[in-house]
């Protein structure tokens, strides 16, 4: 918008599409992800630009974002001692400083803080900035190379960011989280755990059954011994070649 003043001040917003998965920087128009974990495919976002004149003029366009099921292993985490809302507001300048000091094209993949609640977004002085760098051939720069250069240029990067935030800045290289396991792998792990639990339960049942069997077997043996002790020559045969009565003779009862 070539106008000056309020008529030339543009604010961007998402007016349609999956607004729960994406958000937009109202000043720069930069679109970033909020949560697309476990999702893949194409997302269509309707973006509006509006000036701030008395009679607001607007324009809209559709932005298609394709989310790949795979994830890059070259994402590097830079931890800043700044509040997340401040980093979000200056993300374009942070990206510019990193590009200038590293000499590569740098893209901010995500800005994250461990405080998820909206009311706490300005209370934590530690923000993770996930970046990925591309060389002149548009190839991903290996994560180890990015980390090495971040450490080498640490002082210059902090000085550049201090001008952005107007405050003392500490920038440390962190370890980006590992890529989430695929649904197929998660299903395999769950089935494996269930199978192992079933085997353990079955083994415990068998051992308990054998223990009970041995216990009652010993009790039966004790009873048989007691009975045998109360019989006078239990193997003696009567005249009909049959076992004598198991009853004790009357004189033994006396």
Can you put this structure into words, describing what you see?
- The structure is a single chain.
- The chain is of the alpha+beta class.
- The protein folds into three domains: 6-67, Immunoglobulin-like (Sandwich), CATH 2.60.40; 72-174, Alpha-Beta Plaits (2-Layer Sandwich); 179-219.
- The protein has six helices and nine strands.
- The protein has helices at 84-89, 91-102, 143-152, 154-165, 183-229, 250-253; strands at residues 10-16, 22-24, 31-33, 41-51, 58-67, 76-80, 105-112, 127-134, 171-174.
- The strands form three sheets. The chain has a four-stranded antiparallel beta sheet with strand order 7-8-6-9. A three-stranded antiparallel beta sheet has the order 1-4-5, with no helix packed on it.
- A hairpin with a 6-residue loop joins strand 4 and strand 5 (58-67).
- Helix 2 (91-102) packs antiparallel against helix 4.
- The longest helix has 47 residues, at 183-229.
- The radius of gyration is 38 Å and the shape is elongated.
- Residues 117-122 have low confidence and may be disordered.
- It comes from Pomatorhinus ruficollis.
- Its main location: membrane.
CATH topology of the largest domain, by name, is Alpha-Beta Plaits
Estimate what percentage of residues fall within beta strands.
15-25%
Helix content: 25-40%
Q: What profile does the largest beta sheet have?
A: 4 strands, antiparallel
CATH class of the largest domain: Alpha Beta
* Proper CATH architecture of the largest domain: 2-Layer Sandwich
Structural class: alpha+beta
User: What's the rounded overall pLDDT mean?
Assistant: 77
How many domains is the backbone divided into? Answer: 3
Please mark out the parts with pLDDT under 50 across 5 or more consecutive residues, or reply none: 117-122
Radius of gyration: 38 Å
